[in-house]
Design a protein that fits this description.
alpha+beta; Nucleotidyltransferase, domain 5; 4 strands
Length: about 120
């Protein structure tokens, strides 16, 4: 996952179900064209990211065990947000660093993790 896309891989009875959750950029045009001050820009970006994390949180609530992985800090930001919410106390959530991977590499990474 990163700050704009999450690949959701579900392992169930040796079957893999994959979905993608994306968000559009916070700004569709160049920032120079916007008449916003820095604070308003930061607020818009933060609100946009909070919406993305909320959508991911809604998905995560359905599982007992979740692995967050990816090349950016997004996984850790989401994890920190989830551990502050009591709705996630009973869900085992782990965070693993990972480079950018192909679809097959992601499937292998997730399978290997959950075989442990």
């Amino acid at each position: 996952m990163d700050h704009s896309i999450a690949y959701l891989i579900e392992l169930s009875n040796d079957k893999i179900v994959k979905k993608t959750l994306k968000i559009a950029p916070a700004f569709l045009g160049p920032l120079e064209n916007l008449r916003l001050n820095e604070s308003r820009i930061n607020n818009k970006v933060n609100d946009h990211l909070a919406d993305f994390y909320q959508k991911l949180s809604d998905v995560i609530k359905r599982y007992d065990q979740v692995l967050l992985y990816g090349p950016t800090h997004a996984k850790t930001e989401l994890f920190n947000q989830l551990k502050e919410d009591i709705h996630f106390d009973e869900i085992k959530i782990d965070v693993q660093p990972a480079d950018i991977m192909t679809d097959n590499e992601q499937e292998a990474f997730v399978k290997k993790y959950f075989e442990m």
